[in-house]
Amino acid sequence: MLHLSIRRQRQMCIRDRPEGAIARVTGLFTTGAMRRRLQDIGLIEGTDIECLQKSPAGDPIAYYIRGAVIALRSVDSGNILVRCNQAV
User: Fold this and answer.
1) Could you list the pLDDT tens digit for every one of the 88 residues in the chain?
2) pTM of the model
C-alpha cells in the first residue's frame, strides 16, 4: 500500500510542472473532441512531454510533444495526468 501512495504523489497534471520539466503521460481526463485532438497530436499513455514555456499570464503553455511545439490552454493541460521523469 505504501508503494501506491508514493506513486500517486509523483503524478500531477502537466500544467503544474515547471518550465523545462519532462514528464510521461499516464492518462487523459477529458472526453469528446478535445480528447480526440490530444490523441491526434500524440498525447497517449507513455508519451514524454516537456514544458517549454509558460506565458506571463500562465495561459497558454508551450509543450514539446513528439517533435513538435504545441500550445495548450491551461484548462486543457489540466486534464493531462503525468508522472514526473525529471526534477528541475
Assistant:
1) 444 444 445 788 999 999 999 999 999 999 999 999 999 999 999 999 999 999 888 789 999 999 999 999 999 999 999 998 655 5
2) 0.80
15 exposure class (CB count in 10 Å sphere: 0-12, 13-18, 19+): buried
What are the distances in angstroms from CA 33 to CA 5, 17, 30? 32, 25, 9
SS3 15: helix
- Enclosing H/E stretch for 63: strand 61-65
With the CA atoms of 9, 12, 16 and 17 taken in that order, what torsion angle do they form, in degrees rounded to the nearest 10?
80
Q: Which residue in 20, 7, 72, 10 sits closest to 43, CA to CA?
A: 72
